[in-house]
Amino acid sequence: MYASFRPEYLDSIRDLCEAFYGEIEAHRVVWEIRYLTRDGSWVHYYGAKRDGEGAAFGQQWSMQLGWSRWVDPATMVFALLDFQTNPYILAYGGAADSAFDIFREIETHWALEPEIFKLSMVSHGGLPGGREAVTATQIAFVGLALPPPEGNCRFVASKGAVSQRWFRGRRSVRPDITAPEIVTPEFPDSLSRRRGSR
Questions:
Q1: pLDDT at 181
Q2: Which of 62, 90, 108, 178 has the highest count of CB atoms within 10 angstroms of its CB?
Q3: What radius of gyration, in Å, describes the C-alpha atoms of the chain?
Q4: How far, in Å, CA of 169 to CA of 160, rounded?
Q5: What is the model's pTM?
Q6: Nearest to 41 by CA among 78, 14, 5, 94
C-alpha cells in the first residue's frame, strides 16, 4: 500500500498561492506549473512577482486535437482542484526531469493513465545583515484513478525520502554579495618587480 501524498500536494499549492497572491517577505518569486491531464491536455502556467508587482500567464494544448490557446491565469486554481480529484496522489521520485518524460515512463512501464503535476518555484527574501534567503521547490506529483501495482514501483517516492532532484521548501542562505568577500593582497614593490622580471 502506497502512502498518499495528497496533504503534501495541497501544502505545495498553498505555498504557491501564498508566494504569488499573498503578502510574504520574499522580494522576488518565479514559478512554473506543468500539468498533463488524462484526456490529453497539457496546461502550462508560469509567472513572477517582484517587489509586490506580479504577472502570470497560462497556455493550454490539446495533444489529441492539435490546438493550442492562451488561457486566463486565474483558471489555474480550477486546474489545481481538478488534479486534486484523483483518487490516488503520489509523489514522483524517479529519474525523469520533465512532465512529459514522467508521463512516458509511467505509461510505458505500468500503463496507468496518469496525470502529472510538476511545480517549480524559487523565492528570494532578505535577511538581516544583507544576506539573502533562497527557498526552492521542485516537485512532481502523479495522479492515478487506480492504485499502482503491488511491489517495487520506482517512480513512487517514499514519505520522508531525501532527494537531490525533488524537494519542497529547500532553503539556503547566501552571503551579502555586495560585501567584499575576497580581499586581493597588495604585493610589496620588491615582489612586484621580481614577478615582472620573470
A1: 42
A2: 90
A3: 23
A4: 14
A5: 0.81
A6: 78
